[in-house]
Design a protein that fits this description.
By secondary structure, the protein is of the alpha/beta class. The protein folds into 2 domains: about 5-75, Alpha-Beta Plaits, CATH 3.30.70; about 80-325, P-loop containing nucleotide triphosphate hydrolases (Rossmann fold, 3-Layer(aba) Sandwich). The chain is built from 12 helices and 13 strands. The structure holds adenosine-5'-triphosphate. Adenosine-5'-triphosphate (ATP) binds near residues 89, 93 and 252.
Amino acid sequence: MPHDSSSLTALLPATIRSRVQSLKLADGVVTAVLEAGDLDAAGRVTLEEEVKAALSGADGVAQVRVGLMAERAAAEAAPKGPLILAVGSGKGGVGKSTLSANLAVALARQGLKVGLVDADIYGPSQPRLFDNEGVKPEAKDSKMFPVPSRHGVGVLSMGHLIEDGRAIAWRGPMASGALGQLIDAWWGDTQVLVVDLPPGTGDVQLTMIQKHKPAGAVIVSTPQDLALMDARRAMNLFEAAHVPVVGMVENMSGYVCPHCGNVSDPFGCGGVEQAADDLGLPFLGRVPLDLSIRTGSDAGQPPAAGEGPQAEAFLRLARQLVPWIKARL
Ligand SMILES: Nc1ncnc2c1ncn2[C@@H]1O[C@H](COP(=O)(O)OP(=O)(O)OP(=O)(O)O)[C@@H](O)[C@H]1O
């Protein structure tokens, strides 16, 4: 008989079972979150290997993802930093970075003090989107200051730290160490930190979410079925880490012809709203596929900072999020 979450947990040795915070099976993928605050680096690697060895190959299991919780006591004792709002997607290229940047600008236009961390450390794009490429962050007491932008949003990205165009080939633990430095920076009176997560739903993402505990997450998807399946995986990932999903956004949902203004739907339309409905999540709204969104982004001018329908699409999303954010500040 195929396994479910409890029969899978029973496959783990008792010493590991007591560490399980959550364990979910969906579409053949097990997502397990374990308490590991007492273990050193070697112990954590062993624990991850043991879990994978115990569950891989079980009936109905195609893949096992492990997220390890650490430094819980230290995190709880630490002074309260800005509220973290993660922006995630199940796969790359759906517009997660574009949405993160414009949401940050749109939230700042609602009067909030907003910062942005580019956690997409393998392909950082925020310095280009905010037109502050090549600016190195200043630091004090080995903590960085955010790099200012023209739109009132401080930004920190691996792209600010590496030489132009140099690919980063880091392994998971180094990657999450680097991300920690971007988040634990001098954010001052910043109220909301929008975190542009790396695309995907693997171990790196899960560990990052566990460690930095966003207050909530927004999932972005394009309307096609394939992207939607990935969005569902992203939701499972946040659920496994006990991070509430604030809602879903449909990006590239209707192509506005720059010549005649006609709207067509190359990727379909309404799929994300339907998926949000099926999953019992709020649907936050759509952003059209619009050439000016790409050209503005490439030129370092976030459309949300301007006027017109493109700006309005992002401002509408931000207005929906403001009450949720204010209730948590
Ligand atoms: N609504 C839109 N209209 C037009 N172009 C868009 C829109 N959203 C995103 N794009 C463009 O699509 C490309 C991919 O967007 P983006 O980099 O934000 O995606 P991503 O999900 O963050 O990708 P990655 O996983 O590579 O980081 C960019 O060139 C961006 O300008």
